[in-house]
Each structure stands twice: as structure tokens, then as C-alpha cells.
Amino acid sequence: MKRTVFPNRWLPYLLVLPQVAVTIVFFFWPAANSLYLSAFKSPPFGGAGIFVGLQNFVALLTDPEYYESVVNSFVFSGGVTAVSVVAGLVVATLANQKIRGLGIYRTMLLWPYGIAPAVAGIIFLFIFHPAYGILPYFLSFVTAYEFNWLLKGWVAMALVIGATAWTHVGYNIAFFLAGLQAIPTSVMEAASVDGASPVRRFTAIIVPLISPVTFYLVVVNMVSSFFGSFGVIHAVTHGGPGGATEIMVYKLWKDGFIGLNLGSSAAQSVLLMGLVIGMTMLQFRFAEKKVTY
Amino acid sequence: MPVFMSRSLVRVVLACALAVLALPPAAQARTEIHFWHAMTGALGEALETQAKQFNDSQGEYEIKPLRKGSYPETLTAAIAAYRQKNPPHIVQVFEVGTQTMMLSGAVYPVHELMQQNEIKIDWNDFIKPVVGYYTKDGKLYSMPYNSSTPILYYNKDAFKKAGLDPEKPPKTWSEVEAYSKKILAAGAAKCGFSTSWPSWTMVENMHATHDQPFATKNNGFGGVEGVELLINREFGQKHVAALAAWQKENIYSYGGRGGAADPKFMSGDCAILIQSSAVISGFTKAVKHEWGTAELPHWGAPYKKATSIIGGATLWVLKGKPQAEYRGVARFLEFLAKPENQMWWHVNTGYLAISNTAVRNLEQGYHFVKNPKQYTAFAQLTGLPPTPPAAMKDKKAAPVKAERVATPNSSGLRLGNFVQIRDVIESELENVFAGKKPAKQGLDDAVAKSNALLKEFAATNK
């Protein structure tokens, strides 16, 4: 690697200053604040909080409902990541072929990524709502089973996973397309000449060669569905039915802003932050070994 | 086009100049009173009209209404503003936030505000179940604004199709069950009945109208410390178990939280809906089939027939503004309390008129005879018979015997963390209706979780 040498001792620090400042203001400072708040029981309207030490954490870690939200978070983000990465790869492979009107397709495939999660949620709500949705209406001709996600937890979970994965998939397609186009055509042609079937070419050549992209997308999708999937859930299920789609970030928001329990909410955000940092580290530690750059 | 543009520009400039000239100097110095609210659609328009009426009625103060989102979002916004020392003068808070507001130390109680500004309002003229919900130690804390109570809506067309008398809505739960079966058998609807705001209509108000306690310490009115829910007792179990059983047969069809079940009734899927009386005006515009209203169904003996409790919101005055500006707030609240404005609000929104004078005036104008649907909630809340007094002698209503009693159990709820408690109750109801838990276990779990929340509230608000 080429080493850059700055003539001035202070210039490099000056150049990274904006980044560091942004990180401090938007990450470290609020994170430190959360940590501080998590040790108090604060009256919602301000005024002196009562110092309770680790009590907020103890209350959470002994609450079965909190573990439910942790499990829900893993099911949710695992589901979103699996669906959106696999679908992204499949669609990107299809869109990497030479077909007429490719530019139009590729552009259109990116559209869902531009849709705000809350809007995506509302779209799914209108399609799937048991009372006025169009899909349950058609399904009622095919099967007697009621996909009533107002009461059935797994249907609700599948719905929010589907809606969130849909918003993620465009982003994944863009990265996979870039990855696929970086694969030299000579490699693919050589495999064809050797008589490898399209499926074999896909599993033996494409998958390993784009593994850095896949790894990146898995990490990013995981993290963003842990943190950023509030909109869909808020618009569709509100965490229901019976808490079945209440993921950690939703519970955190609900306890803090609806329940006005700021201490517990701060404690939850600290735990969530720790969990996501730990998970990302594990991914880098173990999964990255299987990645060939 | 350019000619037109320049012409219209000239007009605009002229108009502006004229407007500036025409403005009386006093108008420029009007004190702004900020009013944060959560009313949408037709209700939001009515609120803005009312603010405008006040602004036009005097020259000193100007009410500036601002919608801040849903009820919880409005409350959160007001709290954040208060913490940053820049609160609105008035904030609209839903009834479940009452205890939080009373103990916040951030409010300027309405009785104090009125007293200090020497404005006299006869609170005795106001309907008890409404004022009582927001009164502590005989003193009113917030200004009742939009109050409603749950009632039963039924589809007259579906009743006719099922061979039922469309003028005889069900009065008891066994009638609801029997009628629903008939309706289902006749194919007049896909489900018998549904409910909006499940905790409010099916738990809170069912306990109230059957004279059953919802929580210890007089439903929380008797203090913060040691309050516990009582909804897992015999009555609560009986009612929730019945709903769960009906859910299996489509007699009942759970429709979600908030107003999410409304479309089931509006589309004709469910023949009956239990929902706030405040949707009457919305349904009048949007529902295509013939429909009527009735009081909440009752389980009959051995339970007493008691009045229902209210929902909706009140206006809270926040501390932290210059003292002089509060005079404008007081004047606005005085304006809202006037019978004519009460009547205007009721007629234009469907929320209850809450002063006896306003109600009497409405009766004398035969408003309820012409709009019997709007009488249902009023009768249920006060205990009067459900049909409006048709004949009036010498502009006085004929004396009638009350059908419902007002009891301590039916005068309201005052719980801390009530927003979350409702959420807990509705979560557990969903578990019961989905068949994940029997009614008793669901209610036991709801009580255990709610009691923990109540304890937490008591610890933070000592």
C-alpha cells in the first residue's frame, strides 16, 4: 500500500476532523447520553431523576417479554436478510443477461429502495389487510385458511419481513450487479467451454467470486433491519398481535416515547447497541474467513 | 400570459398594501396562544374553525392551532418542548394521559387559571362523568374538550335481510349472540360484530357499565401507591371468554386496535360495531347502508346496569409562559365553555356537548329528536332512557326515570402508565382471541404486567 506523507504535522488531523466531529456529535455523544440515562428513573417532564444504578438493566434482563423482543429481532432481521440477499442475487443474475430493454429493467429494479419504509408498510397494509386488502380477498377463493395477521403472529411476522425485504432488495441488486459485472467474461467462457451447466457456473464461479459483496450485504442488511426497520412495523402491525412483531427497536421506541419510561428505553438502546456491535464483530471474525477477496 | 402575470402581480401588491392599511394597529400586537392538538380530517377542520371564531370574537389574542400527529405524538412533542423550556400554552391530551399530566408538575390547573384571571365558570353545570374524570380533590385540572363514549352501531339492512326488526337493536349480549347467528345464517354479513379500541370498549367500559371495579383504590382515584388491576375476576373472565368463543364462530370478529375495525362495519362485513360515539359524523358521510345506534349491550342480572365512561381528550395548560399570556388562554377556555360553542362543537363533530345548558338548548331545538343517533351516547352516559324526550311541555322535558345508575365504578379510571396498560391489555386480548391462551390466563398475565407498570409509576412519581 502506498503511504501518504503529509508535509504538515497537523493537516491530517484537520482533514479527518469533520468525520470525527460528525461521529462524536451523532454517535458518541448520544450513546454516552443513553448510557447516563439508563442509570436513572426519570420523570417524563424533566426534573431530577432517581439514580437506580443497574436496576433498569436488571428489570429488562429478568423480563420474559424483553427476550421475546430479542428473539423477534433475530427472526425478523434473519428473515429480512435471507429473503432480500437471496432475492437480490437471483434478480441481479437475471438482470445481468443480455436482454432487450435491460437499462429500463435495471432502473426499475432499484425503485423500491427509494421508497420510505413507512410508505412501503402502508402499501403492504392496503394489499394484505384482512378487512379491505385485495390479496386476502383473492386468497379466500383458493383456501379457507384465514391469513389474518391481526391475530396470527406468524402471518404478521412474514408480512413485515416481506415488506422490509422488498425495500432492501433494490439496494442488494445494485451491489450484486456491480459484483457480477466485475467477473471477467473469460472465466465464464472457459467454464462454458468445459461444459459446466448454468447452475454449476453460478455455484462454482459466481458465488465465490462475489462473496465479498455478499458478506458486505449480509452485514449491512442485518444491521439496518435491526435498527432501521421501525417504519414498516409502525405502519403495519404496531408490534402486534400480542407482541409477535415487537422487535427490539420498536419496543425501545414504544417504552420511551409512548410509555415515557426513558430509563428503560435508554437501557434498551444500550443493550441493542452492544448486541449489534457484538454481532458485527462476530461476523467479521468468523464469516469473513470464508470470503475470498 | 406575461400580461396576465403582471396584472395579477399588481393586484396582489395592491391587495397586500390595502390589507396592511386596513389592519387595525392592535391586531399587529395580538398575543399568540399556541395550541397543539391531534385532530385530523373533519375534526381538525372543526377545531380550526372554532379557533378562528375565537380569534374573530376579540382583538387581543390569537389562538394558533398546530397539529402534532397522533395523541401520543402530540404528548411526546409537548413534553420535549417543555423540557426545552418552550412549551405550547395549550396541549390536547387523551384521557389515558390524565394521571401522567396531573402528577407532572408541568401543568397550570384549569381551576387555578380561571380563579387567577377572575373568570367564573359554573362547573356544576357540566356533565359529571366528564368533569369527574379530570377532577382531583374537587378541582378541575384540564378543560374537557372532545369527549365521547362507546356505543353500538348496527346495520339496519343486514337486520332486515336476516328477518330481524331493524328498529330493535340488541340490548343484551345474549341478543347480540342470537342476532349474529341469525345474520350469519341468512348470509346478511360475514361476521356478527366487531370492536374498535378493544381495551376501552370491551374491558374498561364493560366493567363500568356492569358496575365492576377495574382497579383497586377506587379505580385509581384514591391514590397512586398500591393500585392494582381487577380485570381478571369473574366478570372479566366471563366476558373475554365469551368473546374468544364467539371469535371462533365469526359471531365476533376481532378487527385490530384503535379504529382499525371500522372498515368491517362500513363495508357491511360485520353487522354490528362497538365504537366511539365520535364517529357518527364520519359514518354519516361514508357508510352506504342504513344504520342505527344503540347503547352498549349488557349481560343482565346479577350485574347492575351502570353508566359508561368517557374517552377523548382534554386541554391542558402548560407552565412556563409569561403570566400575562395566560389571560388569553383563560379567555379561550371560557369561550369553549359557553353553551353556544358547546352546541356548535357537538353538532359539527359528534363529540358530546358537556354542559347541561347546552344539552337543554339542543333538546329545545329538537336536535336530538331530529338526530336520535346523537342522543344514544348522551343517554348512556347520564343514565337516561335511550330515546330522546319527544314531547316537551313549556320548553321543559317531561320527567323521566333513569335507567342506569352512576357508581364509583362507572365514573372513570385514573391510572399511571395507562397508555402502556392499554397496550398490555390489548396484546393479551389478541393472544386470547388467537387461541394462544385461555381467557383467564390472558387476563392474569395482563394484570401481572399492568401491576408492574403501576408499581413502576408509583416509584417514579412519589
Question: What is the structure about, briefly put?
Answer:
The complex is a heterodimer of chains A (293) and B (462). Chain A has 293 residues and is mainly α.
Q: How would you describe what is shown here?
A:
The complex is a heterodimer of chains A (293) and B (462). In chain A, 70% of the residues lie in helices and 1% in strands. Chain A is mainly alpha-helical and 293 residues long. Chain A has a single domain (73-290), classed as MetI-like fold, CATH 1.10.3720. In chain A, strands 1-2 form a two-stranded antiparallel sheet. Chain B is of the alpha/beta class. Chain B folds into two domains: 27-148 and 311-337, Periplasmic binding protein-like II (D-Maltodextrin-Binding Protein, domain 2, 3-Layer(aba) Sandwich); 150-308 and 410-460, Periplasmic binding protein-like II (D-Maltodextrin-Binding Protein, domain 2). Helix content of chain B is 48%, strand content 13%. Chain B has 21 helices and 13 strands. In chain B, the strands form four sheets. Chain B has a five-stranded mixed sheet. In chain B, strands 8-9-7-10 form a four-stranded mixed sheet. In chain B, strands 4-5 form a two-stranded antiparallel sheet. In chain B, helix 3 (41-57) packs antiparallel against helix 16, helix 10 packs across helix 12 (234-248) and helix 16 packs across helix 17. Chain B is globular, with a radius of gyration of 24 Å. Classes of the chains: A mainly alpha (293), B alpha/beta (462). Chains A and B meet through helix 12 of A and helix 4, helix 20 and helix 21 of B.
